Amino acid sequence: MTSLDSAQLLQSLQTGFISKTHHSISELAPSLLINDYHREKKILTSLLEELSNCKSFDFSVAFINNEGLAAIKQKLDELALYSVAHRENPIKGRILTTNYLNFTQPSALRELMQFPNIEIRAYTKGGFHPKGYIFEHSNYYSIIIGSANLTASALTMNQEWSVKFLSCTDGQIVFSVREEFEEVWKQANEVNEEWLKKYSNKYEEKKLTLKLVNKQIKELRKQEKELQKDEDKNPIVPAFREELEETQFEQFTEFTTEIEIEEDDVEMEIVPNSMQEEALVALHNLREENQNRALLIAATGTGKTYLSIFDVKQEKPRKVLYVAHRDMILDKSEKSFKNIFPNIKTGFLNGSQKDIDADYLFASVFTLAKEDTLKSFEKNEFDYIIVDEVHHAGAESYKKVIDYFTPKFLLGLTATPERTDGFDIFSMFHNNIAYEIRLQKAMEEELLCPFHYYGLSDLTVDGEVIDDNSDFSKLICEERIKHIERTINLYRNFAYPVKGLIFCSRIDEAKELSAKLNNDGYYTKYLTGDNSDAERERVIQELESDDNPLQYIISVDIFNEGVDIPSVNQVVMLRPTQSAIIFVQQLGRGLRKYKGKSYVSVIDFIGNYENNFFIPIALYGDNSYNKDNLRKVMNTGSSGLPGTSTVQINEIARQKIYQAINDTNFTQLKLLKEEFNKLKMRLAKIPTMMDFVNNGFIDPHLFIDYAGSYYEFLKKMDREYTDLEPKHRTSLQFISLEFSHGFRMHELLLLKLLVENNTVTLEQFSNELSQRKVVFKGSVKQILKVLSKEYYRQEDQKKYGEISYVSYDNAKKTFSKTESFNSMLQNNLYKEHLLDLLEYGINKATIKENEVYGDDGLVYYRKYSRKDVFKIMNFDKDQNPQNVGGYIIQEVEGRKKCPVFVTYEKAEDISSSTKYKDYFINNTRFNWMSKNKRYLNSPDVEAILNQETNNIQIELFIKKDDNEGTDFYYIGKMKTDYESKEQTQIPNEKGQMLPVVNLQFDIEPSVPQNLYSYLEA
């Protein structure tokens, strides 16, 4: 929004403060900002939107921490770069904070000082607790005032209330807020090196004091735990808190909530976390069912090794064998066992040690698999065997070991069980998945360290993007090295020394990059597959050590798995995303919690890579391969992530990801086969469509897109799959292609009810719809019509043959199956496929938590094909797209309806005479052109101009461009602005001018900012 109309603002204030039923532009109305990622709401989102569009900004916040800055850092950097490039018109910011409670991190202030367009001051005269954000625009201000400080938890996760409101520049509220800000700003101290040094000393003193308090409380909690055995004893900790001065305890609480306190000197009891406890119950229950094998699937950093140890503790086996493929895994695992069982007798079996008599033996799979070594053990030697990184079990050495032993229980550990080489790990463990902890769930449970992902476009030199596809000389050219150095220095936590991993794909690049970084004052080493385990372990220990200056390990083809470096607080990806699995593995290197690590920075240099579509799959855990789903999660930004983690992607990199989504064919048989076989192996059966949905796998509609129906796909996979008669196959194709994508519930639910019952009354049908939050507004006539031959165009009638499913007794108000449909249902395989198909469609049609119905049961911002829209709006017949063009007016049940279809970005190769100037003026206003060869008095134009008189329902549908396919987002209702009408012209290919009418519409409701930004980008 470039400027504010005071009349529109007045209307929005009436909506906000007088009556919510008053119509106005919702974006202008005052709004409550909260954090609830389940509803894709975060205060951070509004803050970033305002920073993206403002002329200047002022923040007045009591507390600032590094993670709060990390959540907005990319935007601050963009504003700083803009300001340097536009010195005559920079976007300046002022940030006012305080030394109150000595809470604000000095490193956060130092971080802010690197931005040349930002001034920082600190109020030091006592209590200071405001949380306000002021943004200047062309002729108005946006203001956010509430409870949220500039901390990541406040902006993304905490229960916070903030109100956002707009005011014209001359408004009293703006005057009051700005006057107060200026008054306090004058009294505040400039934050410079001298002031920051003094404050840092006080901050460290307070931190030390609070560590001591923290230690006291932890010691008292131990005593309290003992006293809890005696119910007559009173708790100690509350009494201790009462002894503390109120302000001291408030400081302690605030401090420990926002800052990770180092606890080297406090002995911590290792106990199962929430998800480990659930998994332990699941493992116990499996054994109660006499199962002796199980898989545990757990994201890196969630503690799968400790979970296996806790299970050993509850099972109490006589002898335990722990198998892995690297000595460093065995070493760390043995130390973990000792942390829980300090007195056990442990030993190693590898190239240098043969402690075969140990009760807890940690064995290299390569040593153990040797014939003479393996046969030296009895088959039942071990009661409990744990196989780590079990996705390698397809290797002969693993299979040999697993096939030889007969333990009472065998547990496989992995973060990535799905393989593309065809080996079935699941059957090796009898398809028993004891528990599964994926990345997003682990984040939600706060088992992992939060991450801040920065997706950055790689450097462009002389018009060429330098990325992994470039010549080696360009990869290590001075400009790119400086680009990398600036980025890794900017996107780090200033509170702690960098402990970083840099992933490259070429050894020569890693070697040269390490040399050049070291020459510029960094301290790095590079490791490749050629380095031994001992060499790798030595370098890892150097990185982990606080006394060693090593900052970065540059890695090639290693460290994707099987290595644990908890201190890593920065991950740099200088290679293309090969797969979602590898992306998550490399991201996972930094996600383990560690003392003093409040978050990990993830820097991804995004080039012109075909596989960029894996980025949203990995970050958001959406494995559907559904293009619209991937675009949607990209649009949500950080709002769709649990906890304080954020995703920040600059616009060039964002467009590269969208391009990869658009260009990739997700219906290629190779991908479909891989995804199908993954789930088939997991379930040990041919999966249904709903199995894919329930297990979070590929969207099964892609099988329909490829083959016409899921049944047809199964026939392509296996020619021996049971045959169906042509009429059954045609029926499944008809329902698959016309209804399964869930454009609405009615037809799908009715068919399902009739499959399960002989008849269904209209009342029963309406009640069933109501239970699914659908109001039956359509007509029985329309439902019967779209389930019959007459509705469809000639080419579809030929493809689908005779269509006859439902009849209706008007007198009894009852639906029943037609004779032909009832006959087809006698085939059980057809019936199974049909019910699965209908369940899938109903699931797609079901309205989600964030969705809202508009007119005719259209769901705002869902995507529909033209054919879907005509069905939903109750058109008599399907319409030929060539006859429709951009819009059509048709009378339906006494009211004229006009769906308007707009391709927002017109392709270069389309006819000049159809390159209409259709565009958003703002979130609530749309400019539109009629078809060519139209005048103000043309019947269709005149009908739209006189919308109210003609009782025309106008609905807007938009797709960004033709790369999105044939479906359009439902935007909402449009109201014609009669005064905006203009007779104008548009040229054709020959340069001749054709008459066309230009006019503007008001859109209701206003377009959400994330969708608006996507369409406008």
From TrEMBL:
Classification via PANTHER family: ATP-DEPENDENT HELICASE IRC3-RELATED, TYPE I RESTRICTION ENZYME ECOKI R PROTEIN
Key word Coiled coil present: yes
Highest classification ranks of the organism: Bacteria, Pseudomonadati, Spirochaetota, Spirochaetia, Spirochaetales
A matching Pfam family: PLDc_2
Domain Helicase ATP-binding: 285-435
Domain (Helicase C-terminal): residue spans on this chain: 489-653
UniProt keywords, alphabetically: Coiled coil
The protein's name: PLD-like domain-containing protein
Signal sequence bounds: none
Coiled coil (residue ranges): 196-233
Database matches in PROSITE patterns: HELICASE_ATP_BIND_1, HELICASE_CTER
UniProt-listed Gene3D superfamilies: Endonuclease Chain A, P-loop containing nucleotide triphosphate hydrolases
